[in-house]
């Protein structure tokens, strides 16, 4: 995982995110060129814009993976729309859905946008991944009481596939 030296959260914008290749875990490698390019941009919103553009427009799935991972590391709510659009993107080499991990990194600020998205999307893979992401954010270890309380008032009217994906009813 990359370390974000300047943290945005949902409450403000830093002047600049600083990503360090030295802080990448053994499980995740990020192309050094992408890190250098992002770090050379001096404005945080322009960095997010660049990563959004890279995630949307690159034909290289590795570059897309890197962009999605870095978007999550910013913890910025500005990254949520592009991450939602990429919920069904699977990195076949690592067998992960990077947008799920990225949205989970953003945390609580991503829950309501994810829920709104999964209620309207026709992409069942994205809906399933979105439901899993909400569970990852809301469930603290084995304790899902916060998740259940959050879900109760939202349950009525959900399509059956979402009720299943959100863990409300058995398959």
Overview of this protein structure:
With 171 residues, this protein is mostly helical. It is elongated, with a radius of gyration of 16 Å. The N terminus is likely disordered.
Gist of the model:
The chain has 171 residues and is mostly helical.
What would the keywords be for this entry?
single chain, 171 residues, mainly alpha, 9 helices, 53% helix, elongated, disordered N terminus
Order of H and E elements: HHHHHHHHH
Mean pLDDT: 79
The residue ranges in which pLDDT falls below 50 over 5 or more consecutive positions are 1-13, 21-27
Percent helix range: 40-55%
How many separate helices? 9
Indicate the structural class.
mainly alpha
> In percent terms, what proportion of residues is strand?
under 5%
Strand and helix layout:
Layout: H1 32-40, H2 44-57, H3 61-74, H4 80-85, H5 98-106, H6 111-120, H7 124-138, H8 145-151, H9 160-165
Helix pairs in contact: 2-3, 3-5, 5-7, 6-7
